[in-house]
Design brief:
Layout lengths: L26 H9 L4 H27 L5 H18 L8 H26 L8 H9 L6 H16 L12 H16 L5 H5 L5 H26 L2
Length: about 230
């Protein structure tokens, strides 16, 4: 049986709403995820490949020019170190508290981790701009167990995006319910066990203690899986 193809990446709406080297998801992506929280990881993966894939490709090319003879493993570890440090600090990016702040934190962490995966793909000379990388992201980040399921979900998310039904998707629903669902889905993507890290931010003082350890541990675990995946590609 033929596997479902990963959908071609449609142009990113409002692509100018964030400059290069973004710290977190752009505003247009937050709007889509809020409107369609059930498919938030798929929307994030599609946007990450669109926006961050070219960045990763340029980085790898420049790094190889600056470091003649550098091995793919060494280059990948440079990306791991860089983005693990970013992930460790990502919980303090928003400065917001309560549930909205917690959702922002896990969204920034999932975005940072996606950047790391795409940079590692480029280090191993795997095209980080190819649509298939979105499926890789979802499998490596354990949103889906298999690539086929990831491709199907990406197809649904891309279709909903093209149909422009996303922006009206949350009308009439309580904001707290939407944010909670969005936070849980993003926490799942970021590898935060049982979303404890996300909910800890609602409790004053707890987030700082848990955030550094949880973000770093989840990102290092993802880096290990990513190395195993792309090193044998």
């Amino acid at each position: 049986m033929n596997e479902p193809a990963v959908p071609a990446l449609p142009p990113s709406p409002n692509s100018s709403d964030q400059g290069p080297d973004p710290a977190g998801p752009p505003g247009s992506l937050w709007a889509r995820m809020k409107a369609d929280p059930q498919y938030a990881p798929e929307h994030l993966a599609l946007e990450a490949v669109r926006r961050l894939g070219p960045e990763a490709q340029r980085w790898a090319a420049q790094a190889r020019a600056d470091q003649p003879g550098v091995t793919p493993d060494a280059l990948a570890q440079q990306a791991v170190k860089r983005f693990t440090n970013h992930a460790r600090l990502s919980g303090a990016v928003s400065g917001a508290t309560g549930l909205p702040g917690a959702v922002v934190d896990v969204g920034v962490l999932a975005w940072t981790q996606s950047r790391m995966v795409l940079h590692m793909a480029a280090a191993y000379e795997v095209d980080p701009t190819a649509p298939e990388r979105a499926a890789d992201l979802l499998v490596l980040q354990r949103v889906h167990k298999a690539a086929e399921a990831a491709r199907l979900a990406l197809g649904v998310a891309a279709g909903r995006e093209r149909a422009a039904r996303l922006f009206a998707g949350s009308s009439g629903r309580p904001l707290t319910g939407v944010m909670l669902k969005l936070g849980v889905k993003l926490a799942q993507m970021a590898g935060v066990r049982a979303a404890k890290r996300m909910f800890a931010k609602v409790i004053p003082g707890a987030a700082v203690v848990l955030g550094t350890w949880a973000n770093s541990a989840a990102t290092k675990d993802l880096a290990r899986r990513t190395t195993e995946h792309f090193a044998r590609t």
